[in-house]
Amino acid sequence: MQYSVLDLAPVPEGSDVAQALKNTTDLAQHAENLGFHRYWMAEHHNMPGIASAATSVLIGHVAAHTKTIRVGAGGIMLPNHAPLAIAEQFGTLQALYGDRIDLGLGRAPGGDQAVYHALRRAGSDDFPGDVAELMGYLGAPRDGVPVRALPGEGSFVPLWILGSSLYGAQLAAHFGLPYAFASHFAPDALEQAVDIYRRTFRPSEHLAAPKFMLAANVFAADTYAEGAYLRTSMQQAFARMRTGTRGKLPRPVDDIDAVIGAGARCSVDLMLRVSATGGRDEVRQELRDLIDRYAPDEVILTSQIHDHAARKHSIAIAAEVMESLSPAMA
């Protein structure tokens, strides 16, 4: 089983964007050395705690500072962009870094309506049409077309459909593309979406059989208490987001209920339930349970942890655990 990293380039409290981007580069190199298959970054806008807004720029930077790991978008929010522009960007990345570039596509704006208007894409809501147009630009050269993506044409950059609802599952199945579900923060439709994707998948020139990627949070440390402590940063961030209070990634706290309240913590934990928290034994068991239940073809792990050294340690433990699970999964 392949395992990968999703990085939102978190900006921790007490730090800044420049340091966050240095941390992303360091984490990508660390993930490559640990044997992770992919390193994906996601497009979000107007969020002080996330530094990956210019996603294709950051992908190029990370690809330039790594050698073998696949690097890509998890994902590009296609309604924010002209498909031609994305084809040219990722065609350029593929020309620079060869067959290491992935392009995951999402339908959400990666921000609120104000962001959507600021990006000048208001009124554009034909996601299937945009995906088809993008596939055309990245595919084989075509005669008689008025516009070609140069670079981009003939690059065949691998596409993924991302989603947190049944819509993305249906679209990925329709186009015969691999599908990644955002279960790390929106798991409610996970089981039904995976079933629809696998049951209605139509083989294509891109993919002969369904390929499903499960996203999960990992807060791994040497003990359960340490892992639970690291998790409190994400719990606080989600609690603040639910009240419309955005900020940098909070420092962890000893008593999460005292900070956000038991009710809010229960609600947040429901959203973050596709997670593995604790020491090696707890993380191994929780990841094993997720894999047994959903049978993904690949797992992508994210560790939104305030301290960079602790985040590196978390994904090192996760890699160790995934390696130990591989024989059992086989």
Describe the protein.
With 330 residues, this protein is of the alpha/beta class. The chain has one domain (2-219, 275-329): TIM Barrel, CATH 3.20.20.30. Helices cover 46% and strands 15% of the residues. The chain has twelve helices and nine strands. It has helices at residues 17-34, 55-64, 83-97, 113-118, 127-138, 166-175, 190-200, 224-242, 256-260, 262-271, 280-294, 308-329, and strands spanning 2-7, 38-41, 70-77, 101-106, 159-163, 179-181, 212-220, 275-278, 298-302. An eight-stranded parallel barrel has the order 1-2-3-4-5-6-7-9, surrounded by eight helices. Helix 3 (83-97) runs parallel beside helix 5 and helix 11 packs across helix 12 (308-329). The longest helix is centred in the C-terminal third of the chain and has 22 residues, at 308-329. The radius of gyration is 19 Å and the shape is globular. The relative contact order is 0.14.
Q: What keyword list fits this structure?
A:
330 residues; 12 helices; TIM Barrel; alpha/beta; single chain
How is the CATH topology named? TIM Barrel
How is the main sheet built?
Answer: 8 strands, parallel, barrel
Low-pLDDT sequence parts: none
- At the fourth level of CATH, the homologous superfamily is Luciferase-like domain
Determine the structural class based on helices, strands and strand pairing: alpha/beta
C-alpha termini separation:
8 Å
List the strand order in the largest sheet. 1-2-3-4-5-6-7-9
How many β-strands, per DSSP? 9
Q: Please state roughly what percent of the residues sit in beta strands, choosing from under 5%, 5-15%, 15-25%, 25-35%, 35-45% or over 45%.
A: 15-25%
Order of helices and strands: EHEHEHEHHEHEHEHHHEHEH
